[in-house]
Design a protein that fits this description.
heterodimer; A: 452 residues; alpha/beta; Alpha-Beta Plaits; 3 domains; four-stranded parallel sheet; three-stranded parallel sheet; 11 strands; B: 137 residues; alpha+beta; Heat Shock Protein 90; five-stranded antiparallel sheet; 5 helices; 29% strand; HATPase_dom (chain B); HATPase_C_sf (chain B)
Amino acid sequence: MEKLPFYHALKVVENVCIGCTHCMNVCPTKAIRVKSGKADINKHACVDCGECLKACPVNAIIVEQDDFNQIFSYKQRVAILPTVLLGQFPDDITEEQIYAVIREMGFTHVFEVDEAVDLLIEGTKEYMRKHSQMRPFISSFCPAVVRLIQVRFPSLVENIVRLKPVVDISSQFYRKKLIDEGYKNEEIGIFYVTPCAAKIAAVKSPVGEDEMLIDGVINMDFIYNKVMLSIKQTGKEKQAVSNYRHLSTTSIDWTLTNGEASQYSGRCLAIDEIHNVIAFLDKLENEEITDVDFLELRACDRSCAGGVLSTENRFLAVERLSKRAKKEIKRQAETEEMYSTYRPYLLNNIAISEIEPRSILSLDADMMVAMDKMKKIQRIMRVLPGIDCGACGAPKCKVLAEDIVQGHAKMTQCVFLQKMLTKEELISPQESFDISEETWGKGRFEKKKFNS
Amino acid sequence: MDFKFDIEGGNFSKAGSASSDVKKVLKKLNVDPKLIKRIVVSIYEAEVNVVAHAYEGEMNVSIFPEKIVVRIVDKGPGIPDIDLAMQKGYSTASPAVREMGFGAGMGLPNIKKNTNELNIKSEVGVGTEVELINYLN
């Protein structure tokens, strides 16, 4: 059965892409090939982790966002900020100032995603009590990790905690609150400021949820630039109405590494960075690791502070957020009271339905056919050089062999084989050249013109 | 279709690598994830047994349309009393092995739990052959 691919926010800008191999080589799900001199992302395999974007030397991979002006098609314009946004700014810019500038940009309400964290913690504790046989519980926090498990670790899908991520809980809260205040549903536009591509993808095609709770997504670097520009131009003194509310320490720490794992009892581990996550899931799947109760797994190094749309150095962002959290220890969070009325409503709507496995690993749905293909791959591997040079447009010899068997590539794409075949006069030098141009693009082998 | 993986006795840092390789093959063959898990859990136990007790061994995987057969053959001390070894909690593992988190005496019982058919042949002073058969469907 052919499943519809996920929505992806990561896009290759074709006229900027120089067709190198950086993104292809770092992709943890081997989703990228080079064809006709451009990177090509396989939508079924991509998990939106953003490793390709980080590796691109020419910024040809971007995170597609919604047009900012669409916020003005709503009467009530709600901005939901990730807490890491507040960690992007220099120390002398206050939270109140940031809130105020974002309101000036046109939002009628500004609040932080992680305000609803206490509710999710309560929901998660209850979930873990009810489903104690499903240990270890894997947090659904990071959408890139959820997708990674779907495509690469299908047998672990059922260990994912089937509760809404906090952004969905808080947007549901705000919508309900505004409706209760007398606004019509269609007058309310909820916009999420995202620190990464995976969150956008999750908003546009949520896993295990039917309705979209968010109307649009704005990239965090865009907001960062707007805020910086406004503060630089109008000076720091200006203080508009900010509506800033003090958050709990737990909320501020939530998106940082160990923010979740520190909240639950039992053996809880926090693992960040996608390769670390993959290595751990590999062992978990084999049951080499047992007796773990809760796993907080995040695709980026230093969790969301390392998101692809963050502008500040992630270590400095973490430091700032930790400082902010410490400041709030003595203070009573102002958000709890507001949420208390809606607690039962939100807890009733916190569950998501089953998360389906979407394995990209199998060679064929029919095991006998798959076995046949595997034999062919083994035969092809005997003639490939095994040096993983990438000159064929695939990241590894093994991947090329698979592509050949699946009908997506040709043996002759391998430059080693091309040399052999040319020497044996089985293909002409011109044919060999043409094959390489198919991979690397027309005119690719001509002398470069530099403006000196 | 047959695959062969070597197992190194005494090298706990690599214990599990043969099982991981088998897992990758089964995933490629579109074997049901639940069955893969059961197979991998049981062959991992068997692999650790070889690492913990034997000098060297190999894991042979044969895939048929109706079943998957894994034979783990080692050169080692052998098992003097197989019935005793099958009892939960019984272990001859050294304190050093136990310190690494292995040797709880659950190896063979766990394998039995996760396999359709388990055959053990052993000769003291020569080695052990463990055969695990799992039927597809």
